[in-house]
Amino acid sequence: MSETIGERMTYYRKQKGLSLQDVADRCGVTRQYIDQYEKNTFRKNPSLPVIERIAYAIGVNPGRLLGWEDIAETDAKDEEKASDELKKVYDGVRGALEYAAQVEKVDASKMSFGERVKFFRERAGFTRNKLSVLSKVSPGLIAKYEKGDIGMVSFSHIERIAGALNVSPAVLMGWENVTDGAKLNGVCGKLNEILSGEKNGQQ
User: Is the separation of the CB atoms in 167 and 54 below 8 Å?
Assistant: First the structure.
């Protein structure tokens, strides 16, 4: 996949069979405006509201333009590294959480950004200090985000906080709904670490 926002805009626009003018008309801006973003000739990246408008005009999730992948996708290759005995434990936990994902869904899209940060932080059992250590975002800034005292959030903070909370950035922004699949990925990731360590110890 392309590396810059502009390259991803071009990729998805062409994939949808849209012209620059099509996207510009849907966004209510000029063709040159969209063209400048695609060619990365602006001095800075577009703001989140602009990215949302362009993404919805193209017909893709805003997270795709930012290059954010769904953290709920699992890595099947890691399973092959597990020992037979511990792999049964892995599969058992995975199956249980997959079942939980089917029966429990959380609609975080109706919350504000700060409410989602607080919701997922408390769901993970983290204090603000703990989340700060994991995300490298200061506790004071996290508190301001949760209280809604800061309107604009930097891309890097979104990505780091989402990573620490084990949800995708798109979920944290309210662009995607979330199930316990995010929790499933986190537990399976931790088990993968255990399995890898166990296998290395046997060698």
Answer: no
Mean pLDDT computed over every residue of the chain:
75
Backbone angles phi, psi at 13, to 5 degrees: -65, -45
Strand partners, 105: 179
Predicted confidence (pLDDT) per residue in 48-91, tens digit: 888 888 999 999 888 888 887 543 333 333 344 434 555 555 56
Q: Of 33, 63, 58, whose CA–CA distance to 48 is shortest? A: 63
Output 130-139 pairs: Cβ under 8 A, ≥24 positions apart: 131/161, 131/164, 131/165, 134/163, 134/164, 135/160, 135/161, 135/163, 135/164, 136/160, 137/161
Q: What are the distances in angstroms from CA 165 to CA 101, 121, 130?
A: 17, 6, 10
Closest CA to 181 of 72, 103, 75: 72
d(Cα 196, Cα 191) in Å, to the nearest integer?
8
Among 160, 163, 166, 123, smallest CA distance to 141 is for: 160
Q: Using one digit for the tens of pLDDT, what is the confidence trace for 103-138?
A: 345 566 678 899 999 988 888 889 999 999 999 999
- Residue listed under structure tokens 């929790």: 183
Q: What percent of the chain has pLDDT over 90?
A: 25
Percent helix, strand and coil across the chain, each rounded to 5?
Answer: 65, 0, 35
CB 67 within 8 A of CB 1: yes
